[in-house]
Design a protein that fits this description.
The complex is a heterodimer of chains A (171) and B (317). Helices cover 18% and strands 14% of the residues of chain A. Chain A is of the alpha+beta class and 171 residues long. Chain A has a domain at 31-144: Alpha-Beta Plaits (2-Layer Sandwich), CATH 3.30.70.3270. In chain A, strands 2-3-5 form a 3-stranded antiparallel beta sheet. In chain A, strands 1-4 form a two-stranded antiparallel sheet. In chain A, a hairpin with a 5-residue loop joins β2 and β3. Chain A is elongated and about 95 Å long. Chain B is mainly α. Chain B has one domain (68-316). Chain B has helices at 2-36, 52-61, 73-90, 108-129, 133-164, 169-174, 186-199, 211-214, 224-249, 260-281, 287-316. Classes of the chains: A alpha+beta (171), B mainly alpha (317). The A-B interface holds A 4, 7-8, 10-12, 14-15, 17-21, 23 and B 34-40, 43, 277-278, 280-282.
């Protein structure tokens, strides 16, 4: 009985507490520094697409909301022919960002992406691509990878030595 | 002729006020619950969210008036009206201020008890006619609960009757001129409040509804305006019980400076807020706990209170 009265008293004291509510449209909530929101595709510092269409994001996605098709340009540089994220299925888990070997796919702190039409939540590549490098301003996959593409032959990447000719006996 | 006209005006005003207040209580309850749960509650529609009630009313009026095909149609329709009518009937004997009472019955207290007793029918018939096992369970619980709590609800008021020497509510209020009955009749007050909560089947005694066990209890099958009537009936009975607590134990309209009617309204609102505070803080007891609490603790207490009061009045007077 006494505990009931104490409960009532404690609840009554809550009259003088500040409400926890954040009145959303007028008042924006605090976002954690690594908040995971809308997904974007970034470009490298040279303005080229970072994505090499390796399908790792699509494989990592637990809800299968990422669809893409790989293709190559004339220099052997891979890129996605189409890249589609269905945000009505996306759970913003960030696994795709973790899986991405070229830091192309990134999650942004934008969460205001409601639509009246469900179809509008399917984002195509042109909706996803941004013009900048996102969270990693200096990273360029092709500059550190050993792959030979136009303008950069084998052994010309950063921290890479010249390829060894295994057929010669000279030191 | 003039007095009949005056009577009719009082009736209309009382009904309008009771219905408006009970609708406004929906807003008040949501705001107060929010306050005590560190939230804000409805604050979007109109100033302080006051128009939320209007929005809800408009919505509920436009809802489809659906009767389940397996229900007992006539009874299903009558049940919610029965509940509201019995509660509204009790308002007839509430003395709001000297002279402002619909019917100054000699047996006003008994009339009030009789009408709350009849309120059981609305719920029992509603649950029965729904032809749904959860509704029936809720209705059975409601019937058992209200019948058993009615017993000592009446008994707890008998102490007041002994002190006031009348069943007439206006006389009871006037008898409290020197001392409100909440002091000499404190056990009676506690028992009456507990019984009143059970009568209105409000939390923590909302076992007839018990949404975590019985979906919505006796009104599971109700929708649209019929459900709205049950809802309004519940808030009406909260208002009624609060008004009755004020009349029996807190000196009705009596109070300094302010006009009597204002005193009555202020006191009633304090108790309405008390009802909501109880809802915000207490958990629901188990059904057997509810019944044993009623019969093993409250009934003997009520009888004891009656006996002691009677004894003292006999010895002194």
């Amino acid at each position: 009985m006494l505990s009931h009265l104490r409960t009532i008293w404690q609840i009554l004291r809550h009259s003088f507490r500040r409400p926890e509510t954040i009145q959303y449209p007028e008042q924006k909530p605090y976002l954690a520094p690594r908040f995971r929101g809308r997904i974007i595709l970034s470009r490298d510092p040279d303005g080229e697409e970072r994505c090499v269409a390796c399908y790792l994001c699509a494989a990592a996605c637990p809800v299968d909301c990422i669809a893409l098709q790989a293709t190559e340009d004339e220099h052997g540089r891979r890129y996605p022919a189409f890249f589609r994220i269905n945000f009505s299925r996306c759970i913003l888990c960030g696994f795709c960002e973790e899986a991405c070997p070229t830091l192309a796919i990134q999650l942004t702190p934008d969460y205001e992406m409601c639509e009246y039409d469900r179809q509008n939540l399917v984002y195509e590549k042109e909706d996803l691509l941004i013009s900048g490098p996102g969270k990693y301003p200096d990273y360029n996959f092709y500059r550190v990878a050993g792959l030979a593409i136009a303008g950069k032959d084998k052994g010309e990447a950063e921290n890479e030595s010249e390829p060894v000719d295994t057929h010669t006996l000279l030191p | 002729m003039n007095s009949i006209f005056r009577q009719i005006i009082i009736i209309i005003v009382v009904i309008a006020a009771a219905l408006t207040v009970s609708a406004g209580l929906i807003w008040l309850e949501r705001r107060l619950l929010a306050l005590w749960q560190d939230r804000r509650g409805p604050n979007r529609v109109g100033p302080f969210g006051l128009m939320q009630v209007m929005a809800d009313m408009i919505k509920i009026f436009f809802k489809e008036d659906w009767i389940p095909p397996f229900a007992d149609r006539p009874v299903f329709v009558i049940a919610p009206a029965l509940l509201v009518v019995t509660v509204l009937m009790s308002f007839a004997v509430v003395p709001f201020a000297p002279g402002i009472v619909v019917s100054d019955l000699n047996v006003g207290l008994l009339f009030f008890l009789a009408m709350t007793a009849l309120g059981v029918y609305g719920i029992a018939l509603g649950g029965w006619s729904s032809n749904n096992k959860y509704s029936l369970l809720g209705a059975i619980r409601a019937t058992a609960q209200m019948l058993s709590y009615e017993v000592f609800m009446g008994l707890s008021l008998m102490g007041v009757v002994i002190l006031a020497g009348s069943f007439n509510l206006s006389k009871i209020v006037e008898a409290q001129k020197n001392l409100w009955f909440c002091i000499p009749q404190f056990p009676g007050l506690v028992i009456f409040v507990i019984a009143g909560i059970a009568e209105t089947h409000r939390l923590p005694f909302d076992l007839p509804e018990a949404e975590s066990e019985l979906i919505a209890g006796f009104h599971s099958e109700y929708s649209g305006m019929k459900f709205g009537l049950f809802f309004v009936g519940e808030y009406l009975s909260i208002t009624l019980i609060s008004a009755m607590i004020v009349v029996f134990f807190f000196g009705g309209w009596l109070g300094p400076v302010l006009p009597p009617i204002l005193w009555f309204v202020i006191k009633t609102f304090v108790f309405i807020c008390g009802f909501i505070l109880l809802r915000a803080s207490l958990p629901r007891p188990r059904y057997d706990q509810l019944m044993s609490f009623a019969w093993k603790i409250l009934l003997p207490l009520a009888l004891l209170n009656l006996m002691v009061t009677g004894g003292i009045v006999l010895a002194v007077g």
